[in-house]
Amino acid sequence: MKIALLNHGCAKNLVDSELMLGLLAQKGHQVTLDENDADIVVVNTCSFIHDAEKESVQTILQLVNAGKKVIVTGCLPQKYKSELKKAIPEISGMIGTSDLKEIVEVVEHVANNKKYSEQVSEKPDYIYPENIERQQITVGASSYIKIADGCNYHCGYCIIPNLRGEYHSRTIENILEEAKNLVNKGVTEIVLIAQDTTSYGIDLYGKQVLPKLLEELNKIEGLGWIRIMYAYPSQMSDELIEAIARLDKVAKYIDLPLQHCNAEILKAMRRPVMDYEALVNKIRTKIPNVTIRTAFIVGYPGETDEQFNELYEFVKHVRFDKMGVFEYSREKNTVSYSMDEQVPARVKKQRYKKLMTLQQKISREINESYVGKVLPCIVEGYTDDGVILMRSQHDAPEIDGMVYASSEKSVVPGDIENVKIERADEYDLFGILQ
């Protein structure tokens, strides 16, 4: 009986998918990533915003129509347990966000032609299943390590705490062991992820220990880069900033989703109300050549034209290296769902376009400042016509731009090589291997 797995959503989901594949492989099940070649298909779903849900549901329907036995895991069953089964009765099994260790039991139940099987905890509480070797879906230059899961913040627009439960950190020892194993497999860059990486360790050690974790990871021989994603603004402590600046393997890259800059909107979002410009300036002063990525939500309930203009001017003035913009998505069971003054879709779209157009101009100017410079870049692979696909420290895998380089010599994924940048566009850089 062959089992396939399809993953939707974020990198944190990807790690969960790889853990489930690891559990299945451990029990001797045949695992494939080709759903056409499988009898049972596990679909790990995303439920962060409505569009992501739609995509997950479409995949489930296609597979059901193709006659596959479908087991749905992750955020969608956690959020809509009974409704999902009613809407698509053909589903063979469901597993919640914190029940992934039950994957073997559910798969075997379904495989033996038994009836529907379900393991969805009423109140999710995600504890990382240690001692399982992840079956990596993507083995390349970089790999993700989930250092914690769950979230103790309750931002006004976000459903994650309901779907993932409270924040749980893994121990430093377990993370280091996983990192060493990945490096032994040929991984050059490790990307640390959690709902909020900067709170790492507070629940286990009573204080922020991300700086200590970085210090230990930095000692691993053969590791090239360490990258931190999803930092929370009020947790960007001086100690953490100093560690990022000092440790040679830590990418000078900070992913700091600010969501807005207007104090009223931030308060309504239940986000930290603080001077974000001062924070960005401090980071830039203490970490030379740092890249700062951020994300903003436009059209949050009650956002006026004036408040949006304040955000626009803020972005224009601060000049973030990388930026994502999201139109506010109204999600049930969030504080903002029942707020008055929902912003019309048309207005959200206009604001999104205006902010992204501004950012594209800023991004191109920043990218053009690299022309003539030599940047160390990590090899990801080759294009069909032999151009080397690379990334600089300024670019996180899968969300930022690429460096396209030409070279006479051959390189392998994971190598870090110097590239002289010759030209740039809004998102990507182009150069020659030195």
Outline: globular
Largest sheet: 6 strands, parallel
Radius of gyration: 22 Å
By CATH, the architecture of the largest domain is named: Alpha-Beta Horseshoe
Report the sheet-strand fraction: 15-25%
| Total beta-strand segments | 19
Q: How would you name the CATH homologous superfamily of the largest domain?
A: tm_1862 like domain
What's the CATH C level of the largest domain?
Answer: Alpha Beta
Mean pLDDT figure? 94
Note the total helix count: 13
Explain the layout of strands and helices.
Elements: E1 2-7, H1 11-26, E2 30-32, E3 40-45, H2 50-65, E4 69-74, H3 75-87, E5 93-95, H4 103-111, E6 117-119, E7 142-146, E8 148-149, H5 160-164, E9 168-169, H6 172-184, E10 189-193, H7 202-205, H8 210-217, E11 225-228, H9 238-246, E12 250-255, H10 263-269, H11 276-286, E13 291-298, H12 305-318, E14 322-327, H13 345-368, E15 374-382, E16 388-392, E17 403-406, E18 416-424, E19 429-433
Parallel strand pairs: 1-2, 1-3, 3-4, 4-5, 5-6, 7-10, 10-11, 11-12, 12-13, 13-14, 17-19
Antiparallel strand pairs: 8-9, 15-16, 15-18, 16-17, 18-19
Helix pairs in contact: 8-9, 12-13
